[in-house]
Design a protein that fits this description.
By secondary structure, the protein is α/β, with parallel strands linked by helices. It is 34% helix and 20% strand. It has a 7-stranded mixed beta sheet with strand order 3-2-1-4-5-6-7, sandwiched between helices. The relative contact order is 0.16. Bound molecules: 5-O-phosphono-beta-D-ribofuranosylamine.
């Protein structure tokens, strides 16, 4: 685990990247309201200027940045613009929370060990999109969520924490997603706190 530079209170400044609703961002922000939480959110970055989660950040007085891909000629240039925002905010660690863009390899490698993601499946099962519908289609009896470190392979990074939920007979993708999401909101803050306090990730099986 990298050595994080903390602020004067001994907390690690973090940036949260979102693209939409922002309920995981809100959960992280609520956890960080506690002065004993070992991280502090210094930036909410969204690649979508109309993301609902930005309203949560503004209400909380958290700095926002909304760079958009269309304003940059290449993905690398866009990645560089996002990174400049993170660096300017003084963030030491990035939490992806419903961020729907794939970051370039160079960006990911520069932040390896300092970038977390939350993925709504029990990795290594169901990498990628539509995890709930795919679990239902397979007749899975159990589903869940994973917080992991981000590596260049999509949803392949080492695991920090997982939470499991049962799949019920009458579940739809929406009811299953809601059950998983409720777990996400405690798992992400807990996994982040554990990681900055020194918890070791484990490889995906
Ligand atoms: C969550 O299900 C998360 O696991 C996935 O994207 C969704 C984001 O939801 N990566 P929200 O924007 O945090 O409400």
């Amino acid at each position: 685990m990298p050595d994080f530079v903390t602020d004067a209170d001994g907390r690690v400044p973090i940036a949260v990247f979102i693209s939409g609703r922002g309920s995981n961002f809100a959960a992280l922000a609520e956890a960080a309201d506690d002065a004993a939480f070992p991280a502090r959110i210094v930036l909410c970055l969204s690649d979508k200027p109309d993301a609902k989660g930005l309203d949560i950040a503004r209400q909380r007085g958290i700095a926002v940045a909304t760079p958009t891909r269309a304003d940059y000629e290449s993905r690398d240039a866009f990645d560089a613009a996002m990174e400049a925002e993170v660096v300017a905010a003084g963030a030491q660690l990035i939490c992806l929370a419903g961020f729907m863009r794939i970051l370039g390899r160079a960006f990911v490698e520069r932040w390896e060990g300092r970038m977390l993601n939350i993925h709504p499946s029990l990795l290594p099962a169901y990498r990628g999109l539509d995890t709930h519908a795919r679990a239902l289609a397979d007749g899975a009896r159990e589903h869940g969520v994973t917080v992991h470190l981000v590596t260049p392979g999509l949803d392949e990074g080492p695991i920090l924490a997982q939470a499991r939920v049962p799949v019920l007979a009458d579940d739809t993708a929406e009811t299953l997603a809601a059950r998983v999401l409720a777990e996400e909101h405690t798992l992400y803050p807990d996994a982040l706190a554990a990681y900055v306090r020194g918890a070791e990730p484990r490889p995906q099986g």
